[in-house]
Specification:
alpha+beta
């Protein structure tokens, strides 16, 4: 398990999408195994406070092939952590020159239920500012309880996130149904 880090919440930075796109482009070294790269997490929601760490969700065709490409990611400066508690995921982190984590990669296969969950949550918060505001309040609450422990912070806000993810997946399902009507 990774060591906990202090919880620093920053106001939304409009540069985050550009930074995410730059890091996504670097992942093209994975070639045809890389299907897409999604910017997820709080830095992908305009106006939302966030830990200033870019979360990317690269989608791959094959995890075994990705495992074989581990050295390509490490050559880009990423530290490989394997599944790290989530079956079917490959997790990598990138730190800056002073050791602060700046990017997290959450690799999944396209058919993983985690892909739909992450995208639904992001899009739901983008479309519902009242939910994004409620999430910001929850983040501040969790930070006030666990300012020096990112793991405890994540656990603290977990119940809120799970409830919001359920609403997000219902909303996303309805959005998809509306697009199927011709």
């Amino acid at each position: 398990m990774l060591q906990p880090i202090p919880v620093i919440l920053a106001v939304y930075d409009p540069e985050w999408p550009r930074i995410a796109a730059m890091h996504a482009k670097r992942l093209q070294v994975l070639g045809p195994n890389l299907v897409a790269v999604h910017h997820i997490g709080s830095t992908a929601v305009p106006g939302l406070i966030a830990k200033p760490i870019i979360d990317l969700m690269p989608i791959v065709t094959n995890l075994a092939s990705l495992d074989a490409q581990r050295q390509s990611l490490e050559a880009l400066g990423y530290q490989w952590h394997g599944e790290l508690g989530i079956s079917g995921r490959r997790y990598c982190t990138l730190a800056d020159k002073v050791g602060a984590r700046v990017v997290q990669l959450h690799f999944f296969r396209a058919d993983s239920p985690h892909v739909e969950r992450h995208i639904a949550f992001r899009d739901y918060l983008r479309a519902h500012s009242e939910e994004a505001n409620a999430y910001a309040i929850e983040k501040r609450r969790a930070q006030s309880l666990h300012p020096a422990n990112s793991h405890a912070y994540a656990d603290e806000k977990g119940k809120w996130i799970r409830a919001a993810e359920t609403k997000a997946q219902i909303w996303a399902s309805r959005q998809n149904q509306n697009h199927d009507i011709t």
